[in-house]
Write a structure and sequence with these properties.
- This protein has a single domain, classed as NAD(P)-binding Rossmann-like Domain (Rossmann fold), CATH 3.40.50.720.
- 46% of the residues lie in helices and 11% in strands.
- It has 6 helices and 4 strands, in the order αβααααβαββ.
- Strands 1-2-3-4 form a 4-stranded mixed beta sheet, sandwiched between helices.
- A hairpin with a 2-residue loop joins strand 3 and strand 4.
- Helix 4 runs antiparallel to helix 5.
- The protein starts with a helix and ends with a strand.
- Keywords: NADP, Oxidoreductase.
- Belongs to the short-chain dehydrogenases/reductases (SDR) family.
- It holds the Pfam family adh_short.
Length: 158
């Protein structure tokens, strides 16, 4: 997925580069439906990649065993996976600051694509707008480690 692709491509990136991953508002919805303790884990500024990978594995194990709700997880695999992308974005942004590589993620919205059986209300081009906008940011004030929708940063708070 997203983490494996980043692991492969980051060593090839030049200073000043930009990573834009596709997340979803489903990730923020999943976050809001988690227990307060679980929310704190995802927004903890000290969360590292190893801990995030362990959280993802725990979710899979808990979901397979049918105990994910009682363990404080959301009732959505898709949303939880997108929440993991949002958390990974922040982790990578911190790691890549010394190379001046920014890392953000965004939600394209409900787009009219094959994934939505053409039922979305936005065109793919409209959905791509924020991704392109993020990729084209330059200068010292470039945002990094953020989750965006419609060019606006969305903060998750426990």
């Amino acid at each position: 997925g997203t983490a494996a692709l980043c692991d492969s491509l980051i060593p090839l990136m030049r200073e000043g580069g930009s990573i834009v991953s596709v997340a979803s508002q489903s990730g923020s919805s999943a976050f809001r439906s988690m227990s307060p303790d679980m929310q704190k884990k995802f927004v903890d500024p000290s969360l590292d990649r190893m801990e995030l990978d362990a959280l993802a594995k725990k979710f899979c194990d808990d979901a397979k065993a049918g105990r994910h709700r009682e363990e404080g997880w959301a009732n959505t695999c898709y949303g939880t996976s997108k929440l993991a992308v949002i958390a990974l974005t922040r982790i990578l942004a911190d790691k890549l600051k010394p190379k001046n590589i920014i890392c953000n993620c965004m939600c394209p919205g409900y787009c009219k694509t094959d994934m939505t059986s053409q039922n979305g209300y936005r065109s793919a081009a409209a959905g791509a707008d924020t991704a392109v906008w993020l990729a084209m940011q330059n200068g010292e004030q470039r945002p990094t480690g953020k989750f965006f929708h419609d060019r606006r940063a969305i903060e998750l708070k426990a």
